[in-house]
Amino acid sequence: MIYRSASDADEVAAKVAEKYDVRCQAFKCDVMDKEAMAELLLKIYQDVGPVGGIVCNAGVNIRKPALEMTREDFDNQLGPNVWGVLSCAQAAAALWKKHDYKDGRIVIVSSVCAHVAVRGASQCLYNTSKGALTMLAKSLAEEWADQGILVNTLSPGFVDTDMNQNLRDDEKLNKGAAGLTALNRISKPHEQAGAVLFFLSEYATYATGAEMIVDGGLALY
Predict the structure, then answer these.
(1) Is the pTM of this model over 0.70?
(2) What residues contact 7, with CB distance under 8 A and at least 6 apart?
(3) Of 3, 126, 129, 155, which residue is the catalytic one?
(4) Domain count, the chain
(5) What is the CATH number of the domain that holds 141?
(6) DSSP 3-state assignment of 37?
(7) Which one of 38, 72, 109, 201 is separated from 194 by 20 to 30 angstroms, measured CA to CA?
């Protein structure tokens, strides 16, 4: 697991290792640092073992009205959300090319917000960054197909994660968000995991440039 600021990353890695009886480690790195990411994946390859896939899940959301957005807000969202994701994907693809590995898998975590501007959510730059990711995945899928690299996208709806702490803290806000979905509730993180596992698995050998929207029906309306 690669993280930038999570204080419990080592603890979470230890829990995963114990629960599933696997080796799991957390590595600190800023995904916007292309050279550092390349060095880290090489270290993981050497210390932990072969890298078969990577899930690009870095994301920042600054919520404020569009008229109040600044260039700093732009850089702080588009930087990690788009360049950071590309940096991770580049590091993996370069590693696979170096070792002539032809079965690499990249899963990019975008958002249903790549397709819909959620009613009442003032987050124009976040939405823009996710729209960019959806096309980035298609572009990389096309460009890296001859290397045997499959690139696919998961686009979640509302998920109960730290990024959505406001939905945890405000019951009215939570109900309002849930009410925008067909299932009338917020997703738990494990409900997104299946799509990621599918794209990383041998069941997805003919899927590239594909997108799976797991949003509880938010985009139906």
Answers:
(1) yes
(2) none
(3) 126
(4) 1
(5) 3.40.50.720
(6) helix
(7) 38
